[in-house]
């Protein structure tokens, strides 16, 4: 694309991406694209409505303008993962904050409550 980045911009970008590495193979890093998109939507300056619509579109896998139970649970799980991953990088090491985030990450959607 011909875009030139400063070394500081590259460092920030690489630090951001490092939270979304799915796996590495032969020194190539593979990223979870949905998580990157989710993080970008959450961090954008868009309105809450625009963010919600963007996130909805990411997780509406069959493009039927609704989320199945599976899609909704997956979306919730991915959004929580992204928030945790990103905030973990900027949180200080205060024990109570780390414990709170760990507790949130350990909670899962109980689909039996939804039915």
Please characterize this protein's 3D structure.
The chain is mainly alpha-helical and about 120 residues long. The chain has a domain at about 35-110. Helix content is about 65%, strand content about 10%. The chain is built from 6 helices and 2 strands; from the N terminus they run H-E-E-H-H-H-H-H. Strands 1-2 form a two-stranded antiparallel sheet. The longest helix is centred in the C-terminal third of the chain and has 22 residues, at about 70-90. The chain is globular. Mean pLDDT is about 75; it is low at about 110-115.
Strand order of the largest sheet: 1-2
The ordered H/E elements are HEEHHHHH
Percentage beta strand: 5-15%
Biggest beta sheet attributes: 2 strands, antiparallel
Indicate the radius of gyration in whole angstroms: 16 Å
Question: Distance between termini?
Answer: 49 Å
Total helix count? 6
The shape is globular
Residue ranges: pLDDT <50 for 5 or more in a row? Answer: 110-115
The chain-level structural class is mainly alpha
Mean pLDDT metric: 76
Tell me the total number of β-strands: 2
Helicity level: 55-70%
């Amino acid at each position: 694309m011909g875009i030139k980045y400063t070394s500081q911009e590259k460092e920030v970008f690489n630090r951001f991406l490092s939270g979304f590495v799915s796996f590495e193979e032969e020194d190539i890093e593979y990223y979870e694209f949905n998580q990157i998109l989710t993080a970008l939507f959450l961090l954008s300056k868009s309105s809450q409505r625009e963010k919600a619509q963007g996130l909805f579109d990411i997780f509406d896998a069959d493009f039927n303008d609704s989320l199945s139970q599976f899609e909704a649970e997956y979306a919730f799980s991915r959004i929580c993962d992204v928030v945790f991953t990103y905030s973990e990088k900027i949180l200080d090491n205060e024990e109570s904050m780390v414990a709170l985030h760990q507790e949130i990450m350990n909670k899962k959607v109980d689909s039996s409550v939804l039915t």
